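pipeline/complex-builder :: batch 7 item 3
reading input block
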Amino acid sequence: MSVSQRIASDDQLARLLQIGIVLEEVVEARAHHHSQSADADLDAEVETLLADAAEESADHRDRLESLISGLGVDSVPFDEIESLVDARYGRTKPEDFDGILYDQLCNEETAYKFYDDLIEGIEASDAEFSIDRDRLLETLRTIREEEAEGVSEVTKVMERR
Amino acid sequence: MNTADQYLKTIYVVQKQEDGPASTGSIADALDVSPASANEMIGKLEERGLAEHEKYKGVRLTDDGIVRARDALQTYCIIERFLRNVLGVEEFREEAHELEAVIDDTVADRLDTIIDRQPECPDCFDPETDACACLEVAMAPVESD
């Protein structure tokens, strides 16, 4: 085992980007699950928040997929992740408003932390990747910024309630 | 998972394997670092009250150290299970070791929402196989590496 925190190869980078895709898919699937939950009785503000979150995650997924296609690695099919999320959440009781917002806050915070660590790992690495390093970092920094904005938006909605 | 947590996890596992204090040599071997590096980090863990080092005997984790080590081992188990059962990675042990430094416990907690982990985790971790003893191919892998 190495205790190095660097990202040393294309394969390692691709696997981390795949994990990013899965995290985004989890956000999409959970937002979808919350929206479809018959007992949730969501108001317009939360509905819009969830719809925006799902749309943003789909966009992030596309950008990550574009990066890993340059590394010659397959993406992770959304249907598979959605069914895994459903398998875990289909059995649970419908969440209340605070639960849904809190869940969304965790999603955004986790994604921010993931991209922040990933960017730090790439910056600390002197490995040559098959994809352009500047494009890679620019894409990830943009996504990280959007996650930070997401945290701020959810926090504002929670504070108003 | 930061470097300190990787050390704590390793000391915890080596202590269990050796059924007593973990020798610096075993810790260094398990982490693939020099004994000097291991000694330096063990000193830092002692300063933070997470481990106690007794000359000629080895390292023993304190109660606080054990709590953190078990959390780190749980994070590691989540990464292994996620790689094996969700991404279908055959070489999941090697990849988990490579990725653990970059995967934070908050991220692991999110990945945990789509894997079926056993309640006894991390006691199910088997040092001999370097994997969760309950780990099996519970669902069709998404990709076949």
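note: Residues 97-124 of chain A form the longest helix (28 residues).
queue -> next item
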